[in-house]
Write a structure and sequence with these properties.
CATH architecture of the largest domain: 2-Layer Sandwich
Largest sheet: 7 strands, mixed, barrel
Distance between the termini: 40 Å
CATH superfamily of the largest domain: Aconitase, domain 3
Bound molecules: alpha-methylisocitric acid, iron/sulfur cluster
Strand order of the largest sheet: 21-22-23-24-27-26-25
Strand content: 15-25%
CATH class of the largest domain: Alpha Beta
Structural class: alpha/beta
Shape: globular
Oligomer: single chain
């Protein structure tokens, strides 16, 4: 039996384990990326590990999230990351150079390599045939130091694409369709591998839109690990256009490869779609939703900011004016895209139509400005529309393609672009404009010794867990429902994001969307546990969603199920991720209950089950710790940093 593409890349990077779904495998990591919002923590941890020079083939530090700089904090973080990068052998992509995933695809992605990034949308690299995964900053720091990356071996889902997209239907609609289909709550993480004749009809940036937003499949399938396309002639053409033909290798599944699950999508049957508030998988057709009134349109983000996307938008806007009830912002994904738009005149068409051009960065996607008006309806080409993420608590965000976004911005209401008549012909250049002058190379090793790493006053140390005690007696300090995102646990946005390197300060905002009194309660009680529903911790890779609860004294999270990255972040920080043996027991336990996790150390050490005694209710609830051997030892030591230090 032959291998599929995901198995081939895993096999060639396998350090430990076997490719049996659900069992732990260790992977060698070739490339890493970080962005600034998770990067400060990752580099603080790298510095704590005393690693002289990174051991990967390539590591890049991007600045793209915190670019408002409405205080010294962001600029200090940028300087800190820049000095660590130069000293430790990491390339540094300066602010203004673009969004990490877009730039990495353009300038660094290599088919067949593994990429680990401290950002959940790292799977964008799957568009160019990489095995690209998101992880917490600490896991990325370990990989930079040459350490192995551990995950449960995913199931591989084959998505066979047939046919060809109709005019006005976009790559975004393919991934929205998949989000609509994959509603089953599966057990382990999955890799989505695309095959079929339809693949040939999609350019690399279109494939990257699909693999990028594949990260959201985690919302329904409990943790899609990544998504991947084959590397073929289209990949070669893209690499040639980027002056990187030498990075090309042809890669595809063997003829007789098999998969754990199969899905078929006929591209010719797709129509323009939208994900409705507040979940990326609440998908309906634009026609079904109808011409609802809108207040804002935002085009950009790592999902839809390629030159191709921008050219389509410019063609729709050309000669028109943005409707008077709409504010339209556009953030091209990289300096390369922005420069090319300015040279070919498309930027002038956007500006003339009234678009507000923002810098090449995450911007409104992570709530760094452009919050909608109260109860506002915002159409965004982004990948996430979680409640409150836009910065306006009662706003409704719809996720759409660039075509739908631009057509609606002109019409003033949600518009099916197929009503616009003939699709504009977009001719992409066969050579992109290459200028890497905003990517700093690291110091040579002999010079690096003298480079000082510069910290700022807002950069505080990383909280550390402590070794697991025999049993834990404490209180339930919060009970939440299903699908809690890391944006609920540790919100981002312009007011909070600048404090990503200051956990004590961040802690006052923990769970602010759900319960503003939570941080105070934690301080008063000193320690506690959180009870959660299904898919707890979905969304971003930010380990702050574990480090901040750790700082607040949270010892365990008991949930129906966890999202993959958050479970790893909890374990790495030394917080116990436990699940109910019987999900119905969720209803029996309440906030304020006094509880004891009986014999917990012994159970983690020997792999037994754990009993939660609820003294308030006078009941016992059996719990499970679904952890690999390695994860058990990390928990026993009180987190990955302690575990690594002890070895
Ligand atoms: C996001 O899209 O939520 C982010 C901001 O890029 C996060 C990372 C972070 O919180 O810094 C992600 O996706 O991992
Ligand atoms: Fe940035 Fe948004 Fe992409 Fe996250 S999803 S990396 S915030 S553009």
């Amino acid at each position: 039996m032959g291998y599929n593409l995901a198995q081939k890349i895993i096999q060639s990077h396998l350090v430990s384990g076997e490719m049996i779904p659900g069992t732990e495998i260790g992977l060698r990591i070739d490339q890493t990326l970080t962005q600034d919002a998770t990067g400060t923590m990752a580099y603080l941890q790298l510095e704590a590990m005393n690693i002289d020079r990174v051991k990967t083939e390539l590591s890049v530090a991007y600045i793209d999230h915190n670019t408002l700089q409405n205080g010294f904090e962001n600029a200090d973080d940028h300087r800190f990351i820049q000095t660590v990068a130069q000293k430790r052998g990491i390339r540094f992509s300066r602010p203004g150079n673009g969004i990490c995933h877009q730039v990495h695809l353009e300038r660094f992605g290599v088919p067949g390599k593994t990429l680990l990034g401290s950002d959940s949308h790292t799977p964008t690299g799957g568009g160019i045939g990489m095995l690209a995964m998101g992880a917490g900053g600490l896991d990325v720091a370990v990989a930079m130091g040459g350490g192995t990356y551990y995950i449960p071996m995913p199931k591989i889902v084959n998505v066979e694409l047939t046919g060809k997209l109709s005019p006005w239907v976009a790559a975004k609609d393919i991934i929205l369709e998949l989000l609509r289909i994959m509603t089953v709550k599966g057990g382990v993480g999955k890799i989505v591998e695309y095959t079929g004749e339809g693949v040939k009809t999609l350019s690399v940036p279109e494939r990257a839109t699909i693999t990028n937003m594949g990260a959201e499949l985690g919302a329904t399938t409990l943790g899609a690990t990544t998504s991947i396309f084959p590397s073929d002639e289209t990949t070669l053409a893209f690499l040639k256009a980027q002056d990187r033909a030498d990075a090309y290798t042809e890669l595809k599944a063997d003829e007789d490869a098999s998969y754990d699950e199969y899905i078929k999508i006929d591209l010719s049957t797709l129509v323009p779609l939208a994900a409705m508030p507040h979940m990326p998988d609440k998908v309906k057709t634009v026609e079904e939703i109808g011409p609802i009134a809108i207040d804002q349109v935002c085009i950009g983000s790592c999902t839809n900011s390629s030159l191709f996307d921008m050219m389509k938008v410019a063609a729709i806007l050309k000669g028109k004016t943005v409707a008077e009830n709409v504010s339209l912002t556009i953030s091209p994904g990289s300096k390369q895209v922005l420069t090319m738009l300015s040279e070919n005149g498309a930027l002038a068409d956007m500006i003339a139509a009234g678009a507000r051009i923002l810098e090449s960065a995450c911007g409104p996607c992570i709530g760094m400005g452009q919050s909608p008006n109260s109860k506002g309806i915002s159409l965004r080409t982004f990948n996430r529309n979680f409640e409150g993420r836009s910065g306006t608590a009662d706003a409704g965000v719809y996720l759409v393609s660039p075509e739908v976004a631009a057509a609606s911005a002109v019409a003033g209401c949600l518009t099916d672009p197929r009503t616009l008549g003939e699709f504009p012909e977009i001719v992409l250049p066969d050579h992109f404009l290459i200028n890497d002058n905003m990517i700093l190379l690291p110091d040579a090793p002999d010079k690096a010794k003298d480079r000082e790493v510069i910290y700022g006053p807002n950069i505080k140390s990383v909280p550390l867990g402590h070794a697991l005690e025999k049993e834990i007696s404490t209180k339930v300090l919060l009970k939440v429902g299903d699908n809690i995102t890391t944006d609920h646990i540790m919100p981002a946005g312009a007011k909070i994001l600048p404090y990503r390197s200051n956990v004590p300060y961040l802690s006052q905002f923990c769970f602010g969307v759900c319960d503003k009194a939570f941080p105070e309660r934690c301080k008063k009680e000193g320690s506690g546990i959180i009870v959660g529903g299904a898919n707890y911790g979905q969304g971003s890779s930010r380990e702050h969603a574990a480090l901040v609860p750790l700082y607040l004294g949270i010892r365990a999270v008991v949930a129906k199920s966890f999202a993959r990255m958050h479970k790893a972040n909890l374990t790495n920080s030394g917080i116990l991720p436990l699940t109910f043996a019987d999900e119905n027991d969720y209803d029996k336990i309440d906030e304020g209950d006094s509880i004891t996790l009986c014999g917990v150390r012994d159970a983690i050490l020997n792999g037994g089950d754990i009993v939660l005694k609820d003294a308030t209710k006078g009941i016992e609830i059996p719990l499970k710790a679904d952890l690999s051997d390695r994860a058990r030892h990390i928990i026993l030591a009180g987190g990955l940093l302690n575990y690594t230090a002890s070895k």
